[in-house]
Amino acid sequence: MTICLPFLFFRLISMITNAQVKTITALKEKKFRERSGLFVVEGRKMTQELIKSDYEIEQIFACKEWIEDNKILVASLNKIANLVVEVADRELSRISSLSTADRVICIVKQRKTNEVEWQTNEKKLVLALDDINNPGNLGTIIRMALWFGVKDIVCSKDTVDCYNPKTLQSTMGAIFHVNISYTDLTEFLFKNQKRNIYGTVLLNGKNIYKQQLQNDGIIVIGSESHGISDKVKRFVNNPITIPCFAPSNEVESLNASVACGIILSEFRRTIF
Q: Which DSSP symbol is given to 243?
C-alpha cells in the first residue's frame, strides 16, 4: 500500500493539457491577447480581487492547497461550470510567468471598456496617459488612480497594454476596479477641450503647490522619456509643474508613476 499511495495521489490531480499550456504561454504576448480577447491572472492576491470584480473567468488552474483554502468558492464556481482545475505544483510552475508560482493561475476574458463621458453636472477627475511605455509604471499608475478615487483612465494607443503580465502584477488587483480605455488621445482631448485639462510639464508650468486645483477635469501624464507630446500638449489649458528642490543638473525628471502620485495627492488635498 505504501508504494501505491504516491501513484494514487497523482492520479487524483488533473494534468494540464499541452493545448492549455500553449494558450497560457501565448497570452504572455500582446498579439495573442488581442486576437483571443483573453489574458492571464496569477497569484492569490490578484485572484482574490479578480473574483470580486465583474470580469468573466474562463478557467482556473490551482494547486491542492489553494483549492482547500477556498472550498466554498470552488464549489460555487464548479456548480456553474467546471472552472477550477486542480494541478500539481510542478505543472503550475510550468505555466507561471512568476519566478515562484503563487498557487493559482486564471484565464480571463478582457472586459469591454466604456467610453469616458461626464453625466450632467458630474464632477470627476480622469487620467489621460500619453504613450506610457513601461509596464511597471502603468501598473503603479492604475494602483494610484484607484487609491485616489479616479475610476477612469484613458490611454493613448501607444501606451503599453494594461493586460501585460508585468503591468497586471504591478496593479496589485486595482485593474479590476478601474475603467481603462485605449483611444486616439488627441480626439478625446479635442472632444473635451472646454474642460480643465491639466498637464505636467518641466518648463512654463504653474507650481502645483501654489494652485487652486479643481477636482473636475483631465490630468495628462506624459511618457517617461519624452513627457507630453506636442500634439497632446496643445490641448493642455492648465500646465502644471512639480518643482524640483535639488540643485540643478543633479537629478533626472521624476518617474511617471511617482509624478502621478504627487499630482493626485495634491488634487485630493484641496478637498479638505
A: -
